[in-house]
Amino acid sequence: MSEAAILCRDLVKRFGAFTAVDRVSFEVKPGTVFGFLGPNGSGKSTTIRMLCGLLLPTSGRAAVGGVDVARNPEGVKRQIGYMSQRFSLYQDLTVRENLEFYAGVYRIPRRERQARIEEVMTRTGVIADAGTLAGDMSVGVRQRLALGAALLHRPAIVFLDEPTSGVDPISRRRFWTLIGELSAEGITALVTTHHMDEAQRCDELVLMRTGRVVARGTPADLIVAHAPPVILSVRCDRPQEALAIVQKTSGVRRAAVRGVRLHVAAEDDGLAERLDAELTSAGHACTEVRRIGATLEDVFMELAMGEAPP
After folding, report:
1. Is the pTM of this model over 0.85?
2. In terms of Cα–Cα distance, which of 177, 97, 112, 198 is closest to 145?
3. In 3-state terms, the chain is what percent helix, strand and coil (to 5)?
4. What is the pLDDT of residues 184-210, one digit of tens each?
5. Are residues 244 and 110 in the same domain?
6. Which bin fits 26, alpha (ψ -120 to 50), beta or left (φ > 0)?
7. Residue 309 lies in a domain
8. Which of 63, 76, 108, 218 could form a disulfide with 53 if both were Cys (CB 3.0 to 4.6 A apart)?
9. Based on the domain organization, do 132 and 234 belong to the same domain?
10. Any idea what the CATH number is for the domain that residue 179 is in?
């Protein structure tokens, strides 16, 4: 079909009258970290299940590693690694026992199993915990172990479905260092995440909503193409109370409290003066209203909460 590691062309999945995935098309280049974004219910998980050979498409085409997902789903499963946001580990087995179990599932030859297990324990930093029960480890360590299990059979493509959900910031950073190392070795990673700092580290992104792709490109390209015209940072007293006033002000697209400030997506620069006046007249001392740069989170909110795609 293509030299792309992952290829989708007008992929559709219907459940009765409900269309969960609607004409989704994108390509993932080999060795890249590809971010797959969207709010809950946008169709991401259904798309991934089709790409992993777990669910047959209603129509359209998809290939993973050159293997057609509809014609040869078992062939797809043999060459990919998959890590779910839900723990796929046995809590009452040790680290080594979990990996031995998955080595059997992947039918790794017995003469190679111990070397592979040592390899992934070293790579993911869990070798010191080899004798520890999975249920006794922190969330971050368990997630690294789950990644190790997905890498045991040395797949060329890995699907990571919200791999850092519930993980502390230090563990998240360490996990993404591992993803970067895999990419440098030519392994393709498709990652779903709700953390925009993680999405920023992806080579390319696709954002889905209501079953359709609404944007694709590099993080920088998406910010240029889809960010609101103006982003304002507003510092005032009682920001939670002030939020209701700001949301009703003409020219405000959306606003939210960020710490002691209000983060406001606006239509034009003139809104800064109007906001200052509105807040002051309502009895809120406004000490600063300034324009700031847009972020990927602003883009996500703009696209995820916009009008339904055509």
Report:
1. yes
2. 97
3. 40, 30, 35
4. 999 999 999 999 999 999 999 999 999
5. no
6. beta
7. no
8. 76
9. no
10. 3.40.50.300
